[in-house]
UniProtKB/TrEMBL annotation, chain A:
UniProt source species: Chondromyces apiculatus DSM 436
Descriptive protein name: ABC-type antimicrobial peptide transport system, permease component
Transmembrane region(s): 20-39, 246-279, 300-324, 344-370
Membrane topology of this protein: Multi-pass membrane protein
InterPro entries reported for this sequence: ABC-4/HrtB_transporter, ABC3_permease_C, MacB_PCD
Coiled coil spans: none
Localization terms from the record: Cell membrane
Keyword terms: Cell membrane, Membrane, Transmembrane, Transmembrane helix
Residue stretches making up the ABC3 transporter permease C-terminal domain: 260-379
Domain MacB-like periplasmic core: 18-225
Pfam families: FtsX (PF02687), MacB_PCD (PF12704)
GO cellular component annotations of the record: plasma membrane
UniProtKB/TrEMBL annotation, chain B:
Keywords: ATP-binding, Nucleotide-binding, Transport
Record-linked PANTHER family: ABC TRANSPORTER ATP-BINDING PROTEIN, IMPORT ATP-BINDING PROTEIN
Taxonomic source organism: Chondromyces apiculatus DSM 436
UniProt KW ATP-binding keyword: yes
Family: Belongs to the ABC transporter superfamily. Macrolide exporter (TC 3.A.1.122) family.
Protein name: Methionine ABC transporter ATP-binding protein
Length: 388, 231
């Protein structure tokens, strides 16, 4: 028997209250894990960005176009192994306009030199290169839309108006789980030939693969210097920086999620603080007895902290226990399949699990500080007089 | 358990001009006024008086639960009036045993665990603590109930467990605040007999606050308090 074990056993006095308190805190842990996993998944593109890839965009904004000919110039820059250009298409499935997925016009011959973690069967690739209206579709998107090789797909253009016809030439998978498998790629030439003259020969960005990843900053600076005196200047950055700048467009959403996360934790502290304060009030007389028989104020404080610690550990463990099936197996799979563009790999990171348990324990202790301090400061005679 | 007679009859409690004043909304309320009292070691004394006469306050001062506002309170050779909270706690754990009217056992602990509680402050091993707690329960005649929880015991049995808790650290003084107040006559008599046994067989000094004249009659000395003064 020790003070800590007595504190833990005290929690069994009001099982109903303890169960609901632990469940309340566990749900807060679940919400925290869910939001943090969402943020981690969202930033997976940044986290897993290739170190030997750089991207060049318009210096002013990534929504402004670059001349396609810049790609040829970039290929000549020392240190650049491959380069390929891309154009946003922004098409939607006319049968399901709410089904968002990235669709991009790409330079067919070079795109898989740049993104070699996208795996396409050689026969699919050959079929695609041979078909002007061919498209390569991610495995997750193909499953979701029920597409297979040979199917005909119509996308409705939002940036480039009209109904655009495509043939599914192949399905790509990924050799790395962080790669979004819900994208739709087609020939830039098909787009370029079909748009009005003023919109022709333009690209959104150019990606390049380098010989030596350690020279990324140097090569990027060299590229931008070349275009410094041109009408359209460029901003070249690592893939990580490019993804970050893309994410910056959602910074308000990310900040809001962070704020929600903090609010949840504050609510958790209040729930725990209230429960612990009620328990302390009910047991004040017992603390008086402990003090009478010789226990010091610090012992009473530790006694209460021990109870809080036990609740925190239970809440952390139960919270993680319910998080795994709900966040990873249910929500995670759903989001990967339906919103793979934003959440290509929705799994709970080990750091999130550790943080969730530590936060549950720490916040439980924080919530008990005031009740513990007040109980420890109460005079023995006042405590003994107290009737719960 | 007991040490037998310590050094014959000498005061273990020496109060000299002790007073206690509380403040209620900044208004002073004198609860005890110039109390002088000696209690000999090994005696069994009762404090009687009407409600609000200051009995429990006097008991608290002697037990080291509170400090006097004035005067000197010397108990077991130590001056309590100038001691810190921490020193008072140590003094209580080594010198005092407490018995309360409402037993005040911890409901989540078994009888033997409740008795063991004060020993958590000592450096005794777990086995030694349990052995001593069992011995204390044997003294109060509850050894066979040691694994029962308070809710499984009668009022009289609960109070006997509380007495075992009070004697487990072999205190020189036992203070009892209305120890029979919540009990029927039969249980009360059993408790009073037990206190007598502790006094006579183990030479424990017992100071008991009571309203019950029959309980007070068991004591060798009866002190009467009225409006904060000993009469």
């Amino acid at each position: 028997m020790s003070l800590l074990s007595i504190a833990a056993r005290n929690l069994l006095r009001n099982k109903f209250r303890t169960i609901f308190t632990v469940l309340g805190a566990a749900v807060a842990v679940l919400a925290f894990v869910f939001i943090q996993t969402m943020l981690t998944s969202w930033s997976a593109g940044v986290e897993f960005a290739a170190k030997d890839r750089i991207a060049t965009r318009h210096k002013v904004s990534m929504i402004l176009p670059l001349p396609k000919r810049y790609a040829d110039t970039i290929r000549e820059v020392p240190g650049v192994k491959h380069a390929s250009y891309f154009q946003w298409f922004g098409g939607v499935d006319p049968k399901d306009k709410n089904n968002f997925f990235a669709n991009t016009a790409v330079e067919s011959k070079t795109v898989f030199d740049i993104y070699d973690e996208m795996v396409v069967a050689p026969e699919d690739k050959a079929r695609w290169l041979a078909d002007r209206q061919g498209a390569i579709v991610g495995a997750v998107l193909a499953k979701k839309m029920g597409l297979k090789v040979g199917d005909r797909v119509t996308l409705q253009g939002t940036i480039f108006p009209g109904d655009w016809q495509f043939n599914v030439s192949g399905i790509y998978t990924a050799s790395r789980r962080s790669i979004d498998q819900s994208q739709f790629f087609f020939h830039w030439d098909y787009l370029n030939e079909s748009v009005p003259e003023p919109q022709r020969d333009q690209v959104a960005w150019i990606s390049a693969r380098l010989d030596d990843p350690t020279r990324s900053a140097e090569v990027s600076a060299a590229i931008d210097r070349i275009f410094d005196e041109k009408d359209v200047q460029t901003a070249t950055m690592s893939e990580r920086a490019m993804n970050l700048s893309f994410m910056a467009m959602f910074s308000a959403v990310l900040s809001a999620l962070d704020a929600v996360s903090i609010i949840i934790l504050v609510i958790m502290v209040m729930i725990l603080g209230n429960t612990i304060a009620m328990g302390v009030r009910e047991r004040t007389r017992e603390y008086g007895v402990l003090r009478a028989v010789g226990f010091q104020p610090k012992h009473v404080g530790l006694f209460i902290l021990g109870e809080a610690l036990t609740i925190g550990v239970l809440a952390g463990v139960v919270g993680l226990g319910i998080s795994y099936p709900l966040v990873e197996l249910m929500f995670g799979r759903f989001l990967e399949e339906n919103m793979g563009g934003m959440f290509p790999y929705f799994r709970i990171a080990p750091m999130t699990m550790v943080a969730a348990v530590l936060l549950a324990v720490t916040l439980s202790v924080v919530a008990s500080l005031i009740p513990a301090y007040r109980a420890a400061k109460l005079s023995v005679t006042d405590a003994l007089r107290r009737v719960a | 358990m007991g040490e037998g007679q310590r050094e014959g009859k000498k005061p273990i409690v020496e109060l000299d001009g002790v007073g206690k004043t509380y403040f209620r909304d900044k208004e002073p309320v004198v609860v005890l006024d110039n109390i002088s009292l000696d209690i000999e070691e090994g005696s069994y004394e009762a404090l009687m008086g009407p409600s609000g006469s200051g009995k429990s306050t006097l008991l608290n001062l002697i037990a080291g639960l509170d400090r006097p506002s004035r005067g000197s309170a010397r108990v077991a050779g130590q001056e309590l009036s100038g001691m810190s909270d921490s020193a008072l706690a140590t003094f209580r754990s080594r010198t005092m045993g407490f018995i309360f009217q409402a037993y005040n056992l911890m409901p989540v602990l078994t009888a033997v665990e409740n008795v063991e509680l004060p020993l958590l402050l000592t450096k005794l091993s777990r086995g030694e603590r349990k052995k001593r707690a069992q011995t204390a329960l044997r003294v109060v005649g509850l050894e066979e109930r040691m694994n029962h929880y308070p809710r499984q015991l009668s009022g009289g049995q609960e109070q006997r467990v509380a007495i075992a808790r009070a004697i487990v650290n072999d205190p020189r003084i036992i203070v009892a605040d209305e120890p029979t107040g919540d009990l029927d006559r039969k249980s009360a008599d059993e408790i009073l007999t037990l206190l007598e046994k502790l006094n006579k067989e183990f030479n424990k000094t017992i100071l008991m606050v009571t309203h019950d004249p029959q309980a007070a009659e068991r004591a060798t000395v009866i002190h009467r308090l009225d409006k904060g003064n000993l009469s």
